[in-house]
Amino acid sequence: MGSGEMMENDRINHGADMNARNSLETGIQKLDAGALFVLKSKGSWLHCGYHLTTSIVAPALLSLPFAFASLGWAPGVLCLTIGAAVTFYSYNLLSLVLEHQAQLGRRQLRFRDMANDILVSSCKGRSAVHLRRRLQHHDELGRALINPMWITIGGLLLWSLMEVLKSSICDLHGGPGWGRYCVGPIQFLVCYGAVVGCTLLGGQTMKSIYLISRPNGMAKLYEFVVVFGAFMLTLAQIPSFHSLRHINLVSLMLCLAYSAATTAGSIYAGHSAHAPSKDYSVSGDRQDRVLGAFSAIAIIATTYGNGIIPEIQATAAAPVKGKMFKGLCLCYTVVVTTFFSVAVSGYWAFGNQADSIILSNFIVGDTTLVPKWFLVMTNVFALLQLAAVGVVYLQPTNEVLEGLSSDPKMDQYSARNVVPRLIFRSLSIVIATTIAAMLPFFGDLNALIGAFGFLPLDFVMPAVLYNVTFKPSKRDLVFWLNATISTVFSGLAVLGSISAVRQIALDAKNYKLFANVS
C-alpha cells in the first residue's frame, strides 16, 4: 500500500472517530441527570464482570439446597443446569441487542428505554389499521405456540396477555407505554424488592452471629435490621454505578469465600456424628409435591435473576462490542463454581431437611455441627456481600431519583445536586429498612416478586427483544428456540406466582408486624 493511500485511510478513520465522538457528546448532552450521573460509561469488561457477579452470585444461593429438597437429585441438577444455560444465553441476547442499537447510534442505558424503543419503534409510521393487521399475525403465531398448553392455566393467561398487549400497543401509537407502564415498574419492583430483601437478610444474618455468640441473647430482629440499614445508608451515597467497581471486586471474592466455606462446612457436617439421617425423598402429598416443585423452580430461576443487564452494560465505555460477553464469561465461571458446589454439598449433607438458608442446618439446638468460629466467619462473609448486592440493586432507584431531582446542566458534585441526592437516597434506604423491619416475612412476598418480575425480565424479554430486533426467519432454529424459552418461562412465571401466593396464604397466620423471627 502506498503512502498516499495510507494517509487517505488515516484521514478517513480520523474523520469517523471524530464523528463518533461528536455523536457520543451530542447523545450525552441529551441525557437526563439519572443517566448522566449514575450510569457513567467508563468501565471495562472486567468491571462489567464484577457488577454481573455481584448482582447474580448473592447469598440467595444458600437457598439452593432447599430448592433441591423439593425436587430431588436428578430434577434439581437438571433445573440448575438449565437455569445456567438459559440465563447465560438470554443475557447474551440482551447484550447483542444493546450492541446493535449502539452501532445504530441509539445506545440505550436503561431497561425501560430499551423495551420502549425496540418494541414500539416498529409502530411508528404505520396506520392503526395496518398495525392491527400486523399484530393479528403475531396473535396467530402466539395461538400456535401455546396450542399444546391450551388447557393449562399458563396457556390461557398467556393468550389473554397477548390480547391485552395487542390492544395496548395499538392504542399507544408508538407512545412510551412499554417502558413507562410495563418494563419500568416491574424492574423497579424487582430491584427495590431486592434491596428490602437484602436489608432483611442482613439483619437476620447479624442476629445469627449474635445468637452463636450469645445463645440466650434478647436482642430483637428489627434492631439488627436497623443497624444493617444504617450501614446501607452510608454505602448508598456512592455517586455512580461505575464507582462500585472496587466494592464489587471485593464482593466477588466474598461470594467465593462463603460458598467455599459453606461447601466445606456441609461436607464436614455430613460426616459428623450429630448429622441428621440423609433422606432424599420428596416429602408431602401429591399437591404439595407439585406446588413445591414449581416453587423450587421459581427459587432457582430467581437465584439466577439479574434484571439490570442494560444498566450494567451502560457502565462500559464505548465501544461496547464484546465487553459484556467477556464479563458474562467471568461471571458464569463464578456462578457455576458456587451454585453447584453449595447446592450439591448442602443437599447431600441434609437431604430433604435442608432449611431455606443452609447455614441454619449447621446449628442443632445449643450445639453447632461445625466450629463456631467457622460458622461466624461464613456469616460475616455473607453479611458483607449482602451490603454490596443491596447497593447494586439500588442503582435503578438512584437513577430515577437523580433524574427527578438533579440538574444535568450543573456539576454532579455541586450543592444543587448533592443535597437532593443525599436526601432522596437516604429516604429510599430508610423506607426499605422500615419495610424490612416491619415485615420480617418479606421473603414470602419476595418469592412472588421474583416469579412475577425476574422471570419475565430475564427469561422472556431477552428472547422477545432479540426476535423483534433481528427478525430471524421462522425457519431458523434461533427463532423457535427464543419462542420456546419465552413461552415456557411465561408459563413458569404464572405457576411460580400461584405457588408463591399459596405460600403467603399458608403463612399468613404467623404474620405479625416487627415479629422477632429467627
Tally of contiguous helical segments: 18
Instruction: Give the ordered list of helices and strands.
Output: HHHHHHHHHHHHHHEEHHHH
CATH architecture: Orthogonal Bundle
Rg over CA atoms, rounded to whole Å, is 24 Å
The name CATH uses for the topology is Hydantoin permease
Count of domains: 1
Uncertain segments of ≥5 residues (pLDDT<50)? 3-29, 125-132, 137-176
CATH class designation: Mainly Alpha
Oligomer: single chain
Order of strands in the sheet with most strands: 1-2
Round the mean pLDDT to the nearest integer and report it.
82
Description:
This protein has 518 residues and is an all-alpha fold. It has a single domain (31-124, 174-272, 288-510), classed as Hydantoin permease. Helices cover 73% and strands 1% of the residues. The chain has 18 helices and two strands. It has a two-stranded antiparallel ribbon with strand order 1-2. It is globular and about 65 Å long. Mean pLDDT is 82; it is low at 3-29, 125-132 and 137-176.
Characteristic terms for this protein:
mainly alpha, Hydantoin permease, globular, two-stranded antiparallel sheet, single chain, disordered N terminus, 518 residues
Topology:
Blueprint lengths: L2 H27 L3 H6 L6 H12 L7 H6 L3 H31 L7 H11 L6 H19 L6 H20 L4 H37 L7 H15 L9 H26 L15 H18 L5 H6 L8 H28 L12 E2 L2 E2 L3 H34 L9 H24 L3 H29 L6 H31 L11
Antiparallel strand pairs: 1-2
Helix pairs in contact: 3-11, 3-14, 5-14, 5-17, 6-9, 7-8, 8-18, 9-10, 9-15, 9-16, 9-17, 10-15, 10-16, 11-14, 11-15, 12-17, 12-18, 15-16, 17-18
